[in-house]
Design goal:
200 residues, alpha/beta, 6-stranded mixed beta sheet, 7 helices
């Protein structure tokens, strides 16, 4: 497994290229902008994009979807139904047809398996994507912080989602939608919001 981090769009959203080194298959996670650069990275790495995976539907995570669709015809775009139902607003602009994935679903990327954890709170349909010992947490869990809840989110729900993530076993890698990467152990020790959610 190989993961490339690209900061894209107006506010530097973390977009990830998840690559299976055995089959040269890949998935794009949260393409917030700069489709050309994302496609250029995939080409440079010699991988074929098989899926676009969205942790939620805010514009800064979906801004390149339409352009990527044109360049990658037939490649599915996955989004939780609760967020798909809200597409069409300034914060969640339309991005075309999406395939639903939700709690317990899996998406294959070559020989890799992406597990879907529904972690609402930042948005109703926010998800965390787990691949082996890596968590793509979107805007649920950040390094030292958490996502905002004032754009249609819920503080109660995001705290429950943080508790769930914090209770996962092991020192998993945390790859968030903004800011730097981290680990669960680091966040359990130093993240005020995660510690509050865990009752620490």
């Amino acid at each position: 497994m190989n993961i490339k981090l690209m900061q894209v769009g107006e506010i530097g959203t973390n977009c990830y290229l998840l690559e299976d080194e055995d089959t040269r298959s890949a998935a794009i996670i949260d393409p917030g902008g700069e489709a050309r650069g994302i496609l250029g990275q995939a080409k440079a790495d010699g991988v074929q994009v098989k899926a676009i995976l969205l942790t939620h539907s805010h514009y800064d995570h979906t801004g390149a979807v339409r352009e990527l669709r044109e360049a990658l015809p037939g490649v599915p775009v996955y989004l939780h139904p609760a967020d798909a139902a809200q597409l069409g607003t300034a914060v969640m602009p339309p991005i075309g047809e999406t395939l639903p994935y939700q709690e317990g679903d899996t998406v294959p990327v070559g020989n890799l398996t992406v597990q879907v954890l529904h972690t609402p709170g930042h948005t109703p349909g926010g998800v965390t994507l787990r691949v082996e010992d890596v968590l793509f947490t979107g805007d649920t869990l950040f390094q030292g912080s958490m996502g905002r809840t004032d754009l249609g989110g819920s503080y109660t729900e995001i705290m429950a989602s943080l508790k769930r993530l914090g209770q996962l076993e092991g020192d998993l890698q945390v790859l968030p939608g903004h800011m730097g990467v981290s680990t669960l152990d680091r966040e359990r020790k130093s993240n005020y919001f995660l510690r509050e959610a865990l009752g620490l």
